[in-house]
Amino acid sequence: MQKLPILAALTALTLGQPALAQDAPATRTAVVEHRDLDLSTDKGARTLDRRIWRAVVEVCGTAPDYDLEGKNDVRECRRDTRRLASAEAELAIAEAKQGQPIRVTSAQK
């Protein structure tokens, strides 16, 4: 089984920015390692998907139960970040021999 050092860059969307000038939100990034995975197999791809989900949860954070707006922001961040990460993972799998990093990045709201 060939182990592929693949990583693809990923950035998250910043949605719903107010029209007024404000400081840019801080971003958080988690690097998803997968040199130990054989991305040509379903098992390797599923393992990569689980690692990406854990990174998405890490970079988007959580909100307390009483903060409905914050929970909605976290849910939106996770949805958008996961969508981007999954697209990048598909590219990484397709271009496995090129060695691109996967970075999961989120704009902190």
Sum this structure up briefly.
The protein is an alpha+beta fold and 109 residues long. It contains two helices and two strands.
Question: What do you see in this structure?
Answer:
This protein has one domain. Helix content is 42%, strand content 11%. It contains two helices and two strands, in the order βααβ. It has a two-stranded antiparallel sheet with strand order 1-2. Helix 1 packs antiparallel against helix 2. The longest helix has 27 residues. The radius of gyration is 15 Å and the shape is elongated. The N terminus is likely disordered.
Describe the structure using short key phrases.
109 residues; alpha+beta; two-stranded antiparallel ribbon; 11% strand; disordered N terminus
Number of domains: 1
User: What percentage of amino acids are in beta strands?
Assistant: 5-15%
What is the CA-atom radius of gyration, in angstroms? 15 Å
Mean pLDDT equals 75
Find the count of extended strands (DSSP E, 2+ residues): 2
Widest beta sheet: strand line-up: 1-2
Count, helices: 2
Q: Structural class of the secondary elements?
A: alpha+beta
Give the overall shape.
elongated
Instruction: Give a short account of the largest sheet.
Output: 2 strands, antiparallel
Poorly predicted ranges (pLDDT <50, ≥5 residues)? Answer: 1-22
List the secondary-structure elements in sequence, H or E.
EHHE
Distance between the termini: 42 Å
Secondary structure: helix percent:
40-55%
